[in-house]
Design goal:
Number of domains: 2
Radius of gyration: 18 Å
Strand content: under 5%
Shape: flat
Helix content: over 70%
Number of strands: 0
């Protein structure tokens, strides 16, 4: 993992349990609400931090891993927000629009960086600003086109929702690249290649899921 806390196996186990509990909490209430996911996030974060205090070596690094542990727990729990969102009146349409925009944004950004990673935001990170910009633009266009066909959306509302989701997804993917570069500069071994290429898009979709719920509740309904 690019963001690697101490006691990684224990933290991974806690996150797996938190993800399962978040799925249950998303469907348990009679009415759709995201509040139970907040409680799961708090409990998962507390359990993950306690798991890092067991061994002395991990305990010495626990204070520096507060932010990374919180991001990992929030990332796994945020996918359950899609279940809650699916229970909202415009939830299914919002999921389709926002995640399609995010997917297109990530693909275009990655392809652009593979051809022309320019201008480099940092010499150590093989990503450029052009990929993020082109990805967000392509995702916004995709959402606007989908919004013209989906019931409850217009091209304008689709474009706005897609812009937010696509931009956040691309930025989250870029942030994972920075975290991986920071680890390697600190002398830590690189992440396994398949995980290195998966964690950026997964982080992007996790952030887009939370953004989709927020857009649906605050903007579309």
């Amino acid at each position: 993992m690019a963001i690697r806390p101490p006691a990684l196996p224990a933290v991974a186990g806690v996150c797996a349990v938190a993800a399962l509990l978040a799925d249950i909490a998303a469907v348990w209430p009679q009415s759709a609400t995201i509040l139970p996911l907040f409680y799961v996030s708090v409990g998962g974060f507390a359990a993950a931090m306690l798991a890092q205090l067991v061994r002395p070596d991990d305990r010495a690094r626990a204070k520096d891993s507060l932010s990374s542990t919180l991001l990992i727990v929030l990332g796994v729990v945020s996918f359950a927000s899609l279940i809650v969102l699916g229970r909202e009146p415009l939830g299914t349409q919002t999921i389709f629009v926002c995640l399609a925009a995010t997917g297109v944004s990530l693909i275009v950004a990655r392809l652009t960086d593979a051809v022309l990673a320019w201008p480099r935001l940092a010499p150590q990170v093989p990503r450029g600003a052009a990929g993020v910009v082109f990805g967000a633009m392509a995702g916004t266009l995709t959402a606007a086109v989908i919004g013209s066909f989906v019931v409850g959306f217009t091209p304008t509302s689709g474009a706005i929702a897609g812009l937010v989701a696509a931009s956040l997804g691309a930025l989250a993917d870029l942030a994972v690249g920075y975290a991986e570069a920071g680890r390697q500069m600190a002398g830590e071994p690189p992440t396994m290649w398949i995980a290195r290429h998966m964690q950026g898009p997964l982080g992007g979709f996790a952030l887009a899921a939370a953004a989709a719920y927020t857009m649906c509740v605050l903007f579309l309904t």
